[in-house]
Amino acid sequence: MLAIFGFLLVIGLQALSVSAQTVSRWCDSWTNVCFQRFYDASIDTGWGYLFPSTPRTEFIGIFTAPVGVGWVGTSLGGGMRSNPLLLAWVNGQTPLISVRSTAQYAPPSPITGPRVTILGSSGANATHQRIVYRCENCTTWSGGTGGINQNGNHMFGYATHANIKPSPPNSATAGIQRHTLANQFSLNTVDARSTTYDAQLTLLVNTPPLVPGGPPIIITTSSSSSTSTTPITQTSTSTSTAPGPTQSLYGQCGGLGWSGPTQCPVGAVCRAANNFFHQCVPA
Ligand SMILES: *[C@@H]1O[C@H](CO)[C@@H](O)[C@H](O)[C@H]1NC(C)=O
Ligand SMILES: *[C@@H]1O[C@H](CO)[C@@H](O)[C@H](O)[C@H]1NC(C)=O
C-alpha cells in the first residue's frame, strides 16, 4: 500500500514540475504540416501559427480542442481590445470562423478587412475539433497594437469557452458567451516561418475534412512517386507513349480519388503528402 502511494506521489510531483502550457514546434501527424504552437495541456487545446519565410500579409493558423469546447479564439494583437479577434468552432461537422473586434471589454462584433478562409483537414471526429484557416490581410491594422511582429517575439492572445457553442451555432457571426479562460502568450514568428509555405497552403486546401473515424492512416511521406498501395491507375508509367498533361509546381499529382494530371514539370517530383494528396514539389 505504502509503495503504491509513494509511486503515485512521484508521478504527481513530476506532473507538477512540467508546465501545462508550452510554445513549441508541433507537426500535425495527419498533414505533416508543422506549426509553432501554444498548447495548454490542462484543456487539451492548441493554437498554431505558420508564416511565409518572407513576411507577407498573411499566415496559416490551426485551433485544436476537445469536441465539446464552445469556441476557440485568438487575438492577433495580444490584448482583447482594438485588435482583430479570430473566433472559431465546429458545429456538428461544419467548421466556422469569423474576425471580430471590440474597443471595450464587451462582446466583439464582426469586422471586414482581415479575410479568413477555412482550409482542409478542419472538422471534428469523436473526440476533437480542429479549424485550420488562412488569414489574409491579417498582419497590420489600425488601433490596438497595429500589427503582428513577423520578425521575432509577438504576443498573441488566446481565449476559449469551455462548453457553450455560439448561438445560433451554424452562423459564423453568432453571438458568443464570454470566455471561460483567456490570456496571452509570446511566440517567435521567425520560428513559425516555412520556406514551403505556399506548398503547405496548397496541401491544406486539398486535404479532406476531419470526420468521425478520422483522420485517415498515413501511408508514406518519403517516397518520390506513387509507391503506395492505393488504387491509382497510372503506377506503371515507364512506357514511352506521349506524356499526359503536366501539373504545375505544387499542384496535385495523385492521391485517393484524384483523376487529374499525374506528371510533374521538369525539376519536380510527385510526393505523397498523405493518402489523399500527392503534390509536385521541387526534386
Ligand atoms: C485590409 O484590412 C484593413 C483593415 O485592417 C482594411 O482597411 C483594408 O481595406 C483591407 N485591405 C484589403 C485589400 O482588403
Ligand atoms: C481525432 O482527431 C484528433 C485531432 O486531429 C486526433 O488527435 C485524434 O487521434 C483523433 N481521434 C480518433 C479516434 O481518430
TrEMBL record:
<dbReference type="GO" id="GO:0030248">
    <property type="term" value="F:cellulose binding"/>
</dbReference>
<dbReference type="GO" id="GO:0005576">
    <property type="term" value="C:extracellular region"/>
</dbReference>
<dbReference type="InterPro" id="IPR015920">
    <property type="entry name" value="Cellobiose_DH-like_cyt"/>
</dbReference>
<keyword id="KW-0732">Signal</keyword>
<dbReference type="InterPro" id="IPR035971">
    <property type="entry name" value="CBD_sf"/>
</dbReference>
<dbReference type="GO" id="GO:0005975">
    <property type="term" value="P:carbohydrate metabolic process"/>
</dbReference>
<feature type="domain" description="CBM1">
    <location>
        <begin position="245"/>
        <end position="281"/>
    </location>
</feature>
<feature type="signal peptide">
    <location>
        <begin position="1"/>
        <end position="20"/>
    </location>
</feature>
<dbReference type="Pfam" id="PF00734">
    <property type="entry name" value="CBM_1"/>
</dbReference>
<feature type="region of interest" description="Disordered">
    <location>
        <begin position="220"/>
        <end position="245"/>
    </location>
</feature>
<dbReference type="InterPro" id="IPR000254">
    <property type="entry name" value="CBD"/>
</dbReference>
<protein>
    <submittedName>
        <fullName>CBD9-like protein</fullName>
    </submittedName>
</protein>
<dbReference type="Pfam" id="PF16010">
    <property type="entry name" value="CDH-cyt"/>
</dbReference>
